Fold this protein.
Amino acid sequence: MSEADVATRAPESDAQETTIPGDTPAQSGPTMGEHCTSDRPTPTGLSPKGELRKLGGVDVYLAKPDSYPTNPSKLLLLLSSGTGIKSTNNQIQADKFAEEGFVVVMPDLFEGNPAPNSSVPEAEAEGTSFLDKIKLKAVELAKSFVIDEWLARHTEEKVMPILEKVIDACRGEFADAVGNGGGIYAVGYCFGGRYVLLLASERTQVQTGWGGTQKPADEEAGEGANVTKKGPYIKAGALAHATLVSPDDFHGLKAPVSLVCVESDPMFPDEVRETGENIMSKVNLEHEVQVYPGVPHGFAVIGDYDDANIKNAQVTAFEQMLRWLKEH
């Protein structure tokens, strides 16, 4: 096995008929792959430059251009994978956008509870007996349940209010950047990718009671219910290898979006992507979709790979997302 295979192969890849180096197998139900819950090695010589602080009562990682506020900047939300705001790679990713002229706010979507690591280290699986491998598979299965439990604690009903708090605070503290950009921009990776779609949408909701629970208007329309419309919250957005996306998430989109997708990605199936493209085209929403072959889910986030194709694709994906933001 080559060094590149060791560096990028998923532990479960022996069980797959076809594999992409570093990818994870399809799993049923609301789950995420290892690239959403663990980081690649940080590239040599890179380290975070921003700061962890509170904004609107929410923990955030903040990265600003060196020239800000002397020179005008734009406001960008970066919505991370399950590894969260304390991930070194996520912080460096935010810094890269800051170097391009954005005030970058990466909010803690998980209230201090990032996703548990779902993978068994490759070293544990090599050189073990058949029985030991069965045991490792059992550990993987148990960890998948842990991931599902974690996801149940971080639903749309929990995450959207966090984003609304941060957006309101950004409009206050960074009003200059929001005004200079004519609104707020957003990028999202893995778990955060879906929320770029939600922030780019206008959604009709019904709010009843004091609990603030919101449901789509077509599901609940009781007497005295207050029907409201929310969004879009952003001017434009870009998302890479999103997870947990359903075709319904493409309905109501109002802001232009760019999608970085992985070919045959079990975390963002082709049928969901194609349905989404059809929905966006039918309503004449400005959008672009680029599908990257031969790369693993999670490839667009800062991280070191031995495979030159993955390295090049990572650079190209960043350029795609950056160009989209600057053009809008």
Notes: Confidence is low (pLDDT under 50) at residues 1-30, 118-127, 207-215. The first strand starts at residue 51 and ends at 55. The CA atoms of residues 4 and 181 lie 41 Å apart. The radius of gyration is 20 Å.
